[in-house]
């Protein structure tokens, strides 16, 4: 059995770890600056997204102050990544990667297809705005993919699905 001194030492160590975790969370709630974006490598950007997804899956999101993020990014943005995802309401990139306002550019289109407009947006995000990583985010049970397989036809959606079919 632990004595009182060992117990208090253990509690102090846990508190220090919790404090370090809180400090790390606070650091991750700060909006990216141009200097932070410039220093980020593609590998570090991917690692940040992976860590954020791990937090999301574990139910341990950062819970940053969204209004402060809006204020701090009002005059500038310096996203470190760009995500091309589907419009599916169950896969919001900011939430599943546990990222903040201003951290990522997000382009969403049915079936996450890379049309000319989307490719131009990805070029802007990386070449002009400095994002270091492009992620194409797929998901299961995609209605657009199912529609393409089933040869669904409906106005302009038909053209979108034809791009997925191949």
Folded structure, characterized:
The protein contains eight helices and three strands; from the N terminus they run H-H-H-H-E-H-E-H-E-H-H. It is mainly α and about 170 residues long. A three-stranded parallel sheet has the order 2-1-3, sandwiched between helices. Helix 7 crosses helix 8 (about 155-165). The chain is globular and about 50 Å long. The N and C termini lie far apart (about 65 Å).
What are the key terms here?
three-stranded parallel β-sheet; 3 strands; 52% helix; 9% strand; globular; disordered N terminus
Secondary-structure element order, N to C: HHHHEHEHEHH
Average pLDDT for all residues: 85
Major beta sheet, specifics? Answer: 3 strands, parallel
Helix percent band: 40-55%
Query: Uncertain runs with pLDDT below 50, 5 residues or more?
Result: 1-23
Protein structure class:
mainly alpha
Give the end-to-end Cα distance, rounded to a whole number of Å: 66 Å
Number-wise, the strands total 3
* Strand neighbour order, sheet with most strands: 2-1-3
Helical segment tally?
A: 8
- Shape from CA axes? globular
Cα Rg: 20 Å
Strand content: 5-15%
What is the strand and helix layout of this fold?
Layout: H1 4-28, H2 34-39, H3 42-58, H4 66-72, E1 81-85, H5 93-96, E2 104-108, H6 116-128, E3 133-137, H7 143-149, H8 157-164
Parallel strand pairs: 1-2, 1-3
